[in-house]
Inverse folding.
């Protein structure tokens, strides 16, 4: 049933070709971008999970001061 409905739509044969063209374009652009990355950037990206982040939580004295407590 669906095949017959799709066959009656004028110009429907363009969409699979357009989808293939968009996919191949994105794939080729990403492939060129990955191949052109320099080693320094790749090593920086590779070390990101291993680097320590600065402590996002303030220390105890700063939290106490924010609550109105006495700093030691």
């Amino acid at each position: 049933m669906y095949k017959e409905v799709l066959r009656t739509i004028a110009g429907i044969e363009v969409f699979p070709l357009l989808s293939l063209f968009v996919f191949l374009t994105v794939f080729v652009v990403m492939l060129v971008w990955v191949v052109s990355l320099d080693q320094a950037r790749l090593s920086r990206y590779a070390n990101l999970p291993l680097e320590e982040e600065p402590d996002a939580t303030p220390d105890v004295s700063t939290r106490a001061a924010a609550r109105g407590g006495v700093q030691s």
Summary: Helices lie at 2-8, 14-35, 39-47, 60-66.
